Amino acid sequence: MAQENVNVVARIRPLSNETNDETCIKIDPVSSVITLTTNEKQFHMDKIFEQNAPQEEIFEYIQPIIAAVINGIHGTIFAYGQTGSGKTHTMIGSDENHGIIPRSIEMIFIALNEQSKNRKDNFKFKISCTVLQIYCEKTYDLLNGNEKIEIHSRDILKNAKEVEVKSSNECMKILKCGLEKRKVSGTLMNETSSRSHAILTLTLKTEYFKENKKHERISRLNMVDLAGSENRNHTNNNKTQNFEGANINKSLSTLGQVIREIINPFPNQVISYRSSKLTMILRDSLGGNSKTTVIVNIHSNSKYATETKSTLNFAVNVKNVKNTAILQEFITSKETLTLKAEVQRLGGEIDKLKTELGKEKEINQTVVEKVVQLQRIVDEKDNKINTLENETFELEEDKNKLELELKKANEKQKKCEVEIAEMKQMINGLQNENKQMKEKVQALEIINGQMKNQRDADDNYEQFNIDSDCISGDINCGDENEVPVPTDESVPSGKESDSKEKEMPVPMQASPGSTTNQSNIMNVKNYRLGTEYIHGSWVKHLYIFDSDDKTMCYIYTKGSKNYFVCNKCKQINKGKQTAQTVSATIASNENGEECVKLGEIEHVCQRQKFPQTIIYKPDYKLNKEKYGNKVDWRLHVFDSNDKKLYYNYKLCYGDKTFQCFSCKRKNFFVIAHLTTDENGKECCVLSAQKHQCKIQKL
Ligand SMILES: Nc1ncnc2c1ncn2[C@@H]1O[C@H](COP(=O)(O)OP(=O)(O)OP(=O)(O)O)[C@@H](O)[C@H]1O
């Protein structure tokens, strides 16, 4: 890879029709030397095209570069010179007189099409173009709506729009279209002065197969029409044009500086390509991988001698720049190609999958959004449920409170009902007591009447003898015929018998059980005449009471005549004649008062409790109760005060005799009878025996 210098061509434009039309240079076309007449300084060129040199001649000279590009080597052609010196004329020309660019394009298409047609190595080519302009140090893409772009330091055209072109005409159309947007304005020096640097780049991609290997060549041809340097003394520009001119000069000055650095580098010099956009773009063209031809356009009027000198200095400098143009060919084996194709196919599949993944992502996104939406709804429902639960909880608390209050109220009501029931019972009890008291009063009145009658009857009192047969008899077995059944006249009411001990008449004089031989005469309050229900009949009795504790002392049963026999003694002394004198008689004393006269025989039998109790409804209750499969009659006797169950009797001995359920085994005689008293009133007569079993609750 040999280095070669940048090829520098000078093109002298025809003199303008200005007053001073003398030239400031002398040309030696053979030695390609230009001499400045002002100082006789010589400038060596590679080629000099004089004023009348036609466009074809210029193009013919630069053709080798175009050919190199066609063959895979980068090439650059750019025109440098003062404003109005013929740069655009040289590079682009006119429709009638094409410059280098259209001719190069035409040549490239002709050559490649010909190769494509004639070669047998499967030759193919592809051409694309970009058109940029640098205006006031900013880069614009003329094929993309003159959009401003940034130059990429490594891949210059990375951000530029690259348009594939199939023919030279198409390419020229696109080129023209782009260049129409180029910044151009009329100046004193040039009616159509370019105010920007225009860079057209053609990228050629060719390929062919040789020995089963693919040969790919990628080369670029940069064709640059620079904006012209300006001398203010000659331009008479407006403010904008002056500003543009200053920028152009600065840019060209940087180009000159970079060239000087390339040809005269300091040790470890870093070439300042990055100092301007133009030098960045021309980096490969100056000191890099490119064949480069610089056309310096010279306006040779002596008036522009300074500009010409500057241009010639630039030409001399750039001529010293060395480039190393390398063939841009890439050879690929068949296997690599297969692999590349596979990679490409896989890349396609990856793209496809990416697209599908994108869709799936979209779907997932939608699902996620829906899930989020549903979650939001669930959260809202949860909140509502929580609120309702709280309300339910509060309502339940209220309900519990109310139930508690209701329960208390019910209990209070029950208590009140119980109290009312108790009050009613109490009232009933009191009413019963009242009734009983009334009955008692009535009975006492009857007794009083009877006593009065008795007193009258006993006025002719006669002494009696006790019937021994009667005494020896058993009350349970045989004397019932002899015992007179109580009558209305002789028997006090059952209620009287039911009287409690505290209500019993209190003895006034002699104590029962006295051992004196004298007959004991007792006042009326110490005895009472009554009846006792024995074995289905009422037996007349005489009760004699203790004076101290008011309990009954002795009980006498009506004898056969007008006297009474001690019922107890009769049993104790069964079969003995000693009991015959234990008798009592109702009589009158010497004062005419009713009294009881006891027999003279010592009375030794034990004292007895009041023998029986007569109870009226509702102090007892007859119930039909079921015990297992049996139906049984029960008699419940109640306390007269609180109506609690007193004793529980079970039916036995016929349909009207009941035996205590609790003490029936202990005491055979604890029985009750349902009967009528001597007044025909329904009543219950409790056993004469002492009832010792426990009082039961109902
Ligand atoms: N060799 C030439 N033969 C005939 N006419 C020429 C030649 N060179 C330049 N001209 C004419 O001179 C005028 C200015 O030329 P041109 O626009 O190419 O200059 P320029 O260097 O591009 O100027 P600027 O830098 O201001 O754009 C044009 O009218 C052009 O036709």
Automatic annotation (TrEMBL):
Region ranges (Disordered): 478-519
Q: Give the matching PROSITE patterns.
A: KINESIN_MOTOR_1, KINESIN_MOTOR_2
CDD domains per the record?
Answer: KISc
Q: Which Pfam families match?
A: Kinesin
| Compositional bias annotation for Basic and acidic residues | 495-504
UniProt GO BP: microtubule-based movement
Keyword Ribonucleoprotein appears in the UniProt entry:
no
Q: Record's superkingdom? A: Eukaryota
Asked if the record carries the keyword Oxidoreductase, the reply is no
Gene Ontology molecular-function annotations: ATP binding; microtubule binding; microtubule motor activity
Task: List UniProt keywords, sorted A-Z.
Answer: ATP-binding, Coiled coil, Cytoplasm, Cytoskeleton, Microtubule, Motor protein, Nucleotide-binding
Mainly localized where?
Answer: cytoplasm
Enumerate the subcellular locations listed in this protein's record, separating them with semicolons: Cytoplasm, Cytoskeleton
Task: Output a single Gene Ontology CC term carried by this record.
Answer: microtubule
Residues that bind ATP: 81-88
Domain Kinesin motor as annotated: residue spans: 5-321
Coiled-coil positions are 371-454
Q: Which family does it belong to?
A: Belongs to the TRAFAC class myosin-kinesin ATPase superfamily. Kinesin family.
Name under which the protein is recorded: Kinesin-like protein
Q: Which organism is it from?
A: Panagrolaimus davidi
